[in-house]
């Protein structure tokens, strides 16, 4: 626990350092001046937009949980997803760091096995890649038609989007085609690792290899259920698309609040490509995402760097700090409800 706390503190310290360098380079006074000019009505509108994003992706989780026969109510699924956002935002490496904690929350909320919760959140996170690449492709197509040449940063973005557009279907096909071989390989690789870690836990014996294999098989079985539910897959993708459009609208409104008129297609590129920066070792991609979004926004729209930095501050307040606060409350509420379950006494 102390190691995890130190890693989190170190992650936030690194993120703050990156933000300080970014704001110093862009100009702190200029950013503050731009923020002071923001339209308060438009800024306030970002709160319901952020809630729409959280609700859309929460409903994607709701749909996936139905597919693996671990149903919960739609409001509870939205609470679970906001708790997942909190976990992603306070652990290093974003989703990769937050997924294990989110899986635990889901398994407790649904009274299911841990591997089912992990399969659910992993499926939702994987599904999010599909509409994000589609939206970025649409945005880049707009620039290809409207401009003669693409700038350096847009060319890099084009390569990143093209690589993802190729890699996602190839990975999906190969993973599905050789899923049983993949499952066997994961069992072989993880069993000695898990048993070695189990020996480090005081007063606990390492888990039996058969138990580990059963758990891993349960994870892949849950993934199979999601893949074999095409109607629910399409519905989950629709909810995911709605969430991406809400995120895109948040940034577009943030720029609009500062008095700049930018094409919505530009933000369609900025948001998905900027999201790749969440893979940085900082909690929730803090620092890395702000830097990537600022650079991309200037490249795609031509607005001043200070205005781009101010817009990113407004956007991230609505999509990072606000969800972290709401998600922390959701995680606490889910934990409290779990603790308040009635105990049946013997008569």
UniProtKB/TrEMBL annotation:
InterPro entries, sorted: L-PG_synthase/AglD
- Tell me yes or no: is Membrane among this UniProt entry's keywords: yes
**A Pfam entry, by short name:** LPG_synthase_TM
Q: Which residues cross the membrane?
A: 7-26, 41-65, 118-144, 156-176, 233-255, 262-280, 292-314
Domain of life of the source: Archaea
Any one of the GO CC terms: plasma membrane
Membrane topology, as annotated, equals: Multi-pass membrane protein
Q: Where does the record say this protein resides?
A: Cell membrane
The family assignment reads: Belongs to the UPF0104 family.
What protein does this entry describe?
YbhN family protein
């Amino acid at each position: 626990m102390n190691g995890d706390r130190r890693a989190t503190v170190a992650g936030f310290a690194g993120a703050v350092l990156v933000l300080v360098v970014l704001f110093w380079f862009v100009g702190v006074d200029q950013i503050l001046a731009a923020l002071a000019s923001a339209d308060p009505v438009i800024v306030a509108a970002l709160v319901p937009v952020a809630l729409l994003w959280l609700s859309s992706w929460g409903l994607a989780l709701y749909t996936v949980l139905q597919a693996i026969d671990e149903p919960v109510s739609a409001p509870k699924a939205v609470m679970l997803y906001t708790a997942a956002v909190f976990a992603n935002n306070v652990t290093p490496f974003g989703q990769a760091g937050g997924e294990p904690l989110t899986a635990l929350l889901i398994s407790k909320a649904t009274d299911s096995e841990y591997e089912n919760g992990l399969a659910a959140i992993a499926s939702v996170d994987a599904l999010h890649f599909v509409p994000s690449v589609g939206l970025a492709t649409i945005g880049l197509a707009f620039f290809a038609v409207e401009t003669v040449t693409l700038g350096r940063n847009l060319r890099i973005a084009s390569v990143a989007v093209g690589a993802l557009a190729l890699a996602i279907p190839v990975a999906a096909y190969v993973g599905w085609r050789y899923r049983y071989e993949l499952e066997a390989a994961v069992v072989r690789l993880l069993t000695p690792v898990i048993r070695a870690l189990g020996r480090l836990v005081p007063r606990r014996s390492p888990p039996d290899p058969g138990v580990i294999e059963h758990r891993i098989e349960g994870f892949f079985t849950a993934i199979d259920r999601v893949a074999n539910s095409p109607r629910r897959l399409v519905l989950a993708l629709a909810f995911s698309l709605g969430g991406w459009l809400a995120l895109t609208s948040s940034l577009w409104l943030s720029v609009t609040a500062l008095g700049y008129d930018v094409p919505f297609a530009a933000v369609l590129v900025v948001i998905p490509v900027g999201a790749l920066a969440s893979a940085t070792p900082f909690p929730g991609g803090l620092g890395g995402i702000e830097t990537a979004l600022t650079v991309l926004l200037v490249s795609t729209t031509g607005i001043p760097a200070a205005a781009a930095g101010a817009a990113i501050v407004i956007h991230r307040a609505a999509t990072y700090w606000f969800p972290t606060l709401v998600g922390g409350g959701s995680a606490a509420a889910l934990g409290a409800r779990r603790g308040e379950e009635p105990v049946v006494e013997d008569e």
